[in-house]
Write a structure and sequence with these properties.
This protein is of the alpha+beta class. It contains eight helices and twelve strands. Strands 1, 2, 3, 4, 5, 6, 7 and 12 form an eight-stranded mixed sheet that branches. Strands 9-10-8-11 form a four-stranded antiparallel sheet. Helix 2 crosses helix 3, helix 3 packs antiparallel against helix 4 and helix 6 runs antiparallel to helix 7.
C-alpha cells in the first residue's frame, strides 16, 4: 500500500503549544515523501531500499498496533528542514490504516503521527501542515489556512539536528521571543511572501544562517524575490523569483493521500 505526504517548510515558529502543534507559519510543498507499506512479521524501515533508523515511523506503527515493512522514498532531503520525517510518518499511518483495515478516522491518524513525531524529537507540528496542504499559520488562536499554489524555489546544503535544537533550552527561549514577535505582527491573512520576508530577520536573530544561506537569500532579493531559511536546516526557500535556486516546485494544495 502506497501513500504520499507533501513536504512542509516552517518559516517561523514559537514552540509554546506543543500538544496541538507550535505557533508558527508553514507551507506544504508539492515535492514530498512517498511510502510503500507491506505486511511483515516485524516492523522494518528502509529509505530507498536501504535499511535505516526512522524512529517516528516506527513509533506510529507501534501506536497503531501493527507491524509492517516501510520503504520511504523522499523527493526532498532528509533532516534538512522539509519535514520529511513528519511526511513519512503521516503517509505511513494512512497506508497502514488502509492495509490493515483499521478504519481509524483521519484525525486520529494525524494525531498519532504528531505524537510519534514529538516523542521522537523530530518535529513539533509538521503533520498538521502535511495533512491540510497550503499555507498554514497559527498566531495563537488556532490554525488558519490560506489556499495558494504559488511557485517556490529551494536549495539545501544539509541538515541541522531538530532534536538537538529542540533540546537547547536557551535557543528555544530565543525562538519563543523572536518567533512570537514575528507572529504577533503577521498580517491576517498573510501572503506567502509576507511570511517569508518576516521570517528572514527571525532566522538571523537566532544566528542560524550559514554564509551559503546568507548569499543565496541576497541573490533572491536582488532578483526581486523574498527568501528565508527553513526551520531547521541549511536550506533556503524563496518566492517571487525564477531560476535563482536549484529546485523549483509549488505549494501543495492537497494534503497527504493514498496512492
Amino acid at each position: 500500500m502506497d501513500a504520499f505526504a507533501p513536504a512542509s517548510v516552517t518559516a517561523v515558529f514559537a514552540p509554546d503549544q506543543i500538544e496541538s502543534g507550535s505557533r508558527g507559519a508553514s507551507v506544504a510543498l508539492a515535492d514530498g515523501v512517498t511510502v510503500s507499506v507491506d505486511e511483515a512479521p516485524e516492523s522494518t524501515v528502509t529509505v530507498d531500499g536501504e535499511p535505516a533508523a526512522f524512529e517516528p515511523v516506527e513509533r506510529v506503527l507501534d501506536r497503531l498496533g501493527v507491524d509492517a515493512a516501510v520503504d520511504v522514498q523522499p523527493q526532498v532531503p532528509l533532516g534538512a528542514g522539509f519535514g520529511a520525517s513528519g511526511a513519512a510518518t503521516l503517509a505511513t499511518a494512512l497506508a497502514a490504516n488502509e492495509l490493515y483495515e483499521l478504519a481509524l478516522p483521519r484525525d486520529h491518524l494525524v494525531e498519532h503521527s504528531h505524537e510519534a513525531e514529538v516523542a521522537a524529537g523530530t518535529g513539533l507540528g509538521d503533520v498538521f501542515i502535511q495533512d491540510a496542504g497550503g499555507l498554514l499559520y497559527n498566531v495563537g488562536d488556532g490554525r488558519q489556512r490560506v489556499e495558494t499554489d504559488q511557485a517556490v524555489e529551494y536549495v539545501s546544503y544539509g541538515g541541522l539536528s531538530t532534536a538537538d535544537a529542540l533540546a537547547d533550552e536557551e535557543l528555544m527561549d530565543r525562538v519563543r521571543e523572536e518567533g512570537g514577535a514575528v507572529l504577533d505582527a503577521l498580517p491576517a491573512p498573510p501572503t506567502l511572501r509576507d511570511v517569508v520576508e518576516r521570517s528572514w530577520p527571525f532566522a538571523q536573530a537566532l544566528d542560524l544562517p550559514t554564509d551559503r544561506v546568507v548569499d543565496d537569500v541576497a541573490r533572491v532579493e536582488e532578483a526581486g524575490g523574498a527568501a528565508t531559511m527553513a526551520m531547521l536546516g541549511e536550506t533556503v526557500v524563496a518566492v517571487d523569483c525564477e531560476g535563482v535556486l536549484a529546485n523549483r516546485t509549488r505549494v501543495s494544495t492537497e494534503g497527504a493521500r493514498l496512492l
